Amino acid sequence: MRYLTDPLPPPPYVSERDLLRLASELGAGYFTAARLYDWYAETVKAEGREPVTKKWFGLALAEAGWQDSTQRLTDERTAARCWLITRPWQRRGDEQERGQ
């Protein structure tokens, strides 16, 4: 029963720096969840870090205030989960950080 007394490891997280870099390098617009995660995973692996899972990455995007939706892709029968990425200062809660 030792597992009951050991503290839980901290949950994985996506750094604020990674999210700001994502927004500045990819720009604003709709991006598929797969494209965003691939960009993130390649970026952090290139820096020698381990990427979080796709689920944790999606939670980080939602927590940052970006909106997800299902968008039609190239034809009418193909749809994918997409995220609307806006400029970093347009995210929820940033007005307070900028002193507005």
Overview of the structural elements:
- With 100 residues, the chain is of the alpha+beta class.
- Strand 2 and strand 3 form a beta hairpin.
- Strands 1-3-2 form a 3-stranded antiparallel β-sheet.
- It contains 5 helices and 3 strands, in the order ααβααββα.
- It has a domain at 37-69.
- Mean pLDDT is 79; it is low at 94-100.
- Helix content is 43%, strand content 17%.
- It is globular, with a radius of gyration of 16 Å.
List keywords for this structure.
43% helix, 5 helices, globular, single chain, alpha+beta, 100 residues, 3-stranded antiparallel sheet
Number of strands: 3
Give the topology string: H per helix, E per strand.
HHEHHEEH
Q: What would you report as the Rg, rounded to the nearest angstrom?
A: 16 Å
End-to-end span in angstroms? 51 Å
Provide a compact summary of the structure.
By secondary structure, this protein is of the alpha+beta class.
Chart the SSEs and their pairings:
Elements: H1 2-5, H2 16-26, E1 29-32, H3 33-46, H4 54-63, E2 67-72, E3 79-85, H5 94-97
Antiparallel strand pairs: 1-3, 2-3
